[in-house]
Amino acid sequence: MDLFTHGSEGLKSAPLAERLRPRTLDEMVGQDHLIGEGKILRKLIEADQVASIIFWGPPGTGKTTLAQVIANTTRSRFVFFSAVMQGIKDVREIVQKAREEKAYHGRKTLLFVDEIHRFNKAQQDAFLPHVEKGDIILIGATTENPSFEVNSALLSRSRVFVLQPLSPDDIGVLLTRALQDERWPEGRGRQIAPDALDFLADQAQGDARVALNTLELAVSTAAAEKRITLQLLQEVLQKKPLLYDKGAEEHYNVISAFIKSLRGSDPDGALYWLARMIEAGEDPLFIVRRLVIFAAEDVGNADPRGLQLAVATMQALQFVGMPEGRIPLAQAVTYLATAPKSNASYKGINEALAEVRQSGALPVPLHIRNAPTGLMKELGYGQGYRYAHDYEGGFAPQQHLPDQLQGRQFYRPQDRGYEKMIGERMRHWADLGRPPSTEESRKTAQDDTDKPHKQDTD
Question: What gap in Å lies between CA 378 and CA 347, rounded to an integer?
């Protein structure tokens, strides 16, 4: 049976996007970087040199359609295999049939595995020997990053082609063609208002399936109307379907954009990405956890109130829940976005950890060791320790780092926000006699460690 012919009843009941699938390369819209004139995939298809392939792209970008067009163009037998509905045990049957087709009819079998990422790595291994022997040409489709979701052995034997979301112009072409296609008598001859076409092309978010099936619903909803209006489409669509899978790449893209907007002091950008996550159903506690981390990492001591507000926002969310929780979330987001920024604490702990890993457990200076027993006191534990509260200003210059690290500086306050005051305070302490802790004066600090300090009298 031809790939694109079905029983009349099955054809009528199928969604419009299924009925109007392109049959040739020239009928396809979008993906010009792959199948445009002179592009690599088009050349391979036209030369019948297609080997195993992984198509990676968002829903509705033509992964299944392109696989069917390849099979049709190369006159290959097309077998649709669903990772959701079928298992590895079905592969033996498919491979046996593929060998018979090749032996008796000289016909290749193209095995299209939809949602291949749903197979675990061991299950994906089942395809390897048949791909290597040439029993089948495997085309896998995935919305997930194949670097993480596809077995490396299978990935090394396949070419990965990335499909992009269709542009609004591409969607517009598909919709206009659909209203002229003889395979859809109910829609043929109808008109769509320009503003309605633009609206639907934009709302589809690059997904041809969403666009075509929404158009079909609009036509069936207003069967007596010959013109599809913007108002009709708004009633049918209700709201934009957001592309956002909490376990997939787009999840990480959106949270990355959110954090970078906060770091870039852009409250409008941060509010937009916050709204995207809320509207898509993201767990608000996940969002506020990221705000707590951001407040400490990127705002830090430039505005210590940022961390307080982030923690208070977490408590408010637990108390009031959603949707009201969006309000304290928005307050925290706008506060942190517009707060002065410093990552000095974040960088400081990272540098200190790196030093500990490199130099190991250096001995604690004797004068700041604990001395709970007489023997320890005899050995010098705690001798010479200066109790800061006994000194003017509550500060007593003395060494706190191990001898080998004396003069090292891990915390470098930024010259903005509250941290500017911290920096001034630290410089004041240095002037009072503590060995300087700046990197520029490391040599002076080392020299100072050899000079005796005034000892406590008690």
Answer: 39
Rounded distance, CA 260 to CA 352, Å?
26
Query: To which residue do tokens 């990552």 refer?
Result: 343
pLDDT, tens digit, 9 for 90 and up, residues 336-345: 999 999 999 9
Could you give the 3-state DSSP secondary structure of residue 204?
coil
Q: Which residue type sits at 273? A: W
Tell whether pTM > 0.90: no
**Best CA proximity match to 112, nearest among 132, 88, 83, 87:** 83
- What's the pLDDT tens digit per position in 4-25? 444 444 556 788 989 999 999 9
Q: Which domains does the chain have, with CATH numbers?
A: 31-162 (3.40.50.300), 168-237 (1.10.8.60), 249-338 (1.20.272.10), 365-448 (1.10.3710)
Contacts (Cβ under 8 Å, ≥6 apart) of 284: 278, 317, 322, 325, 326, 329
To which residue do tokens 């609206």 refer? 199
* End-to-end Cα separation, the chain, in angstroms: 100
Closest by CA to 91, choosing from 54, 125, 63, is: 125
CA distance 327 to 108: 59
Rounded CA-CA distance 22/29 in Å is: 9
Residue 257, CB half-sphere, CA atoms under 13 Å: how many?
14
